[in-house]
């Protein structure tokens, strides 16, 4: 067997030296001493859960996004479930959503016994196309769940107008978009309900956690009950009022976020502006660099938004490369760049195929995008050195496969 001489530019996947020695993940949390101290303080206090930190975090969060109410949950998925419940989704109802998302967005409709109906995307943003969504409205449609893909807000004015025309509830899945702005307004009070996640790869973390924001006091009340077994008062209220009586008024869950998580969230919120600025700086640098790299199409941004950059998804330009997405992906992984694919379209998952009979071909824009997408690492704790490694690896790999 003969081996080619190992040169600096030889791809790691072919035996060359990787750009990095250790894997750079696509996303990760940033925790400092203040965060740790805040959690330790809660551990020494009387309330590990349903205590004072919960309300403090919710108020601070609502103020930050500019919404009247914020209700915390044990995860973004629990928050989506609660929003689907509060929207009144039930068996026989339909809710329109994007196939280019994490399965939880559509699953929350199924939790309520309702049917998720996918609609195809706008090719530039890979967000729900309002015209495609309009074409899917039926007499059974009750809600619409746009997803702010990668942190780029969905076309909310068009979606809200459509919802208004048909009396639909808009649940915005903003799990990628904490801090994003749409036409000068922050995501969080634009839809009837807006859902956030505090998983460690997101902009702010509580370990696991989520939030629904709304300007509607009635919805906020239902959301609060739903996360606490459907009980109409909370333990601490009863303790301070000296009462033991409580009533369960709807079928809820235990979806509460702990004081441990909320204390961490409060500290993380203080650093959110700085962390968002860093994500925007990284995205800007990537876009400047990748505009010059043949074979790579950087994500496009509409002029009326300021994205929050949860993800930085490039598309592989098959016309300018010998390899396909899979080859570029594997080569970047070998260089120790922790690339990912967001997302395999939801209707491709075996569960959805089997239950709803999808065969592929239903949503051509989402499906074609999926074949080209690669998420590059982006997180607020990324160093300049990490950033240069990603740029070097993408250039190295696309150079190799350039035709
Ligand atoms: C992260 C995420 C969720 C789920 O949030 P969890 O907190 O992990 O339950 C839902 N939708 C989208 C688009 C997400 O990115």
Describe this structure in words.
The protein has 403 residues and is α/β, with parallel strands linked by helices. The protein folds into two domains: 146 residues, Aspartate Aminotransferase, domain 1 (Alpha-Beta Complex), CATH 3.90.1150; 238 residues, 3-Layer(aba) Sandwich (Aspartate Aminotransferase, domain 2). The protein is 38% helix and 12% strand. It contains 14 helices and 13 strands. The protein has a seven-stranded mixed sheet, sandwiched between helices. Strand 6 and strand 7 form a beta hairpin. The chain binds pyridoxal-5'-phosphate. Pyridoxal-5'-phosphate (PLP) binds next to helix 3 and helix 4.
Q: What's the tally of helices?
A: 14
Compute the number of structural domains. 2
Strand tally, please?
A: 13
Strand ordering within the main sheet = 1-9-8-5-4-2-3
Name of the CATH architecture of the largest domain: 3-Layer(aba) Sandwich
CATH topology of the largest domain: Aspartate Aminotransferase, domain 2
Structural class: alpha/beta
Q: Kindly report the name of the CATH homologous superfamily of the largest domain.
A: Type I PLP-dependent aspartate aminotransferase-like (Major domain)
The residue fraction in helices comes out at: 25-40%
Uncertain segments: 4-8
Query: Shape, please?
Result: globular
- Calculate the mean pLDDT score and round it: 96
Q: How are helices and strands ordered from N to C?
A: HHEHEHEHEHEEEEEHHHHEEEHHHEH
Gap from first CA to last CA: 28 Å
Radius of gyration: 22 Å
- Strand percent estimate: 5-15%
């Amino acid at each position: 067997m003969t081996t080619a001489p190992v040169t600096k530019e030889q791809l790691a996947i072919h035996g060359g030296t990787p750009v990095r020695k250790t894997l750079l993940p696509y996303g990760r949390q940033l925790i400092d001493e203040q965060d740790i101290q805040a959690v330790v303080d809660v551990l020494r206090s009387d309330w590990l859960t349903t205590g004072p930190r919960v309300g403090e975090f919710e108020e601070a969060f609502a103020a930050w996004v500019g919404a009247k109410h914020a209700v915390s949950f044990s995860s973004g998925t629990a928050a989506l479930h609660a929003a689907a419940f509060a929207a009144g989704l039930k068996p026989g109802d339909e809710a329109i959503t994007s196939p280019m998302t994490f399965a939880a967005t559509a699953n929350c409709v199924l939790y309520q016994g309702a049917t998720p109906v996918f609609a195809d995307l706008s090719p530039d943003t890979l967000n729900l196309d309002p015209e495609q969504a309009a074409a899917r409205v039926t007499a059974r449609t009750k809600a619409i769940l746009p997803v702010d893909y990668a942190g780029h807000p969905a076309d909310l004015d068009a979606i809200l107008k459509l919802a208004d025309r048909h009396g639909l509830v808009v649940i915005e899945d903003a799990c990628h978009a904490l801090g994003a702005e749409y036409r000068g307004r922050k995501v969080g009070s634009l839809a009837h309900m807006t859902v956030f996640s505090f998983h460690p790869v997101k902009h702010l973390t509580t370990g696991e956690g989520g939030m629904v924001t709304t300007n509607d006091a009635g919805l906020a009340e239902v959301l609060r009950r739903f996360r606490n077994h459907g009980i109409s008062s909370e333990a601490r209220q009863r303790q301070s009022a000296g009462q033991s009586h409580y009533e369960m008024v709807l079928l809820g869950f235990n979806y509460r976020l702990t004081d441990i998580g909320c204390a961490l969230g409060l500290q993380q919120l203080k650093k959110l502006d700085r962390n968002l600025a860093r994500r925007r700086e990284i995205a800007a640098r990537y876009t400047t660099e990748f505009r010059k790299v043949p074979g790579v199409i950087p994500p496009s941004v509409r002029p009326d938004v300021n994205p929050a950059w949860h993800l930085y998804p490039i598309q592989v330009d098959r016309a300018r490369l010998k390899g396909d997405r899979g080859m570029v992906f594997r080569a970047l992984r070998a260089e120790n760049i922790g690339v990912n694919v967001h997302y395999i379209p939801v209707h491709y998952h075996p569960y959805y195929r089997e239950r709803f009979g999808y065969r592929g071909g239903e949503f051509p824009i989402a499906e074609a995008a999926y074949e080209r997408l690669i998420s590059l690492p982006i997180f607020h704790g990324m160093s300049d050195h990490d950033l240069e490694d990603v740029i070097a690896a993408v250039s190295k790999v696309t150079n190799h496969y350039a035709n």
